[in-house]
Amino acid sequence: MDAPRASLPSLPPGPSEGGEPHRLRMKDLCAETGLPRQAIHFYIQQGLLPAGTKTGRNTALYGREHVERLKLIKKLQHERFLPLKAIKALIDGREEHFAPEQRGILLDVKQRLAHGQLVRPDASPEVTVRADDVCARAGVPRADLDHAITIGLIGGREDERGDLVIAADDAWLLEAWGELRRLGYADDLGLRIDDLTMVSEVVDDLFNREAMLLASRIDRISPERAAAMIERALPIVHHFITGLHTKKIRAFFATLD
Length: 257
What we know:
Helix content is 56%, strand content 5%. By secondary structure, the protein is mainly alpha-helical. The strands form two sheets. It has a three-stranded antiparallel sheet.
């Protein structure tokens, strides 16, 4: 189970937190975040960013909370390679499950996890690999990778040379898909990379349930102990999931005569 990467402020439609009114115009958001107007409007349309306070038919004002949310979205999308669909799920889940004081505890847990392998420190750059190199190594058509990005399975962006790159941590998904293709799942059974979203959705549901469980009990133990428990329990939980999946398959075939 992953710890949240940053605190997400609650964004009211009117005055910002602490009673300070929204004073920033759209051009101010663009200047402070480096994002174009079209991208910010798209985030609002997709529910990633609440709308500002309307001041006219086509004008609105925004608060500092909008700036911080946009910086977080930009960081998760462009530095951590999370697709927008995944970012929205994380934002919605955190705001639904965790109260402000619980998020404060989780930030402390995050800092402690950053000393291990589970959570990358905020200042640590994401290691990237060229999309074409991964496809060649995995034996996967480039079109499959492009589609995986389109449907939100993987995040990608262009580097300074204009080449598409993905996070090195995500290369395993293309390699696993390549293994399935070599086994004949694509050619013989017609499996497509879209079908992998089924597994992604199951994991999303699992994580949301984990988050609810964590939210109800995180304040019972110290952040230091919580971090240690998460790191040590994760391999056990993965083993548990694999075992249950195998057991389910065996039980299914046992019913066939």
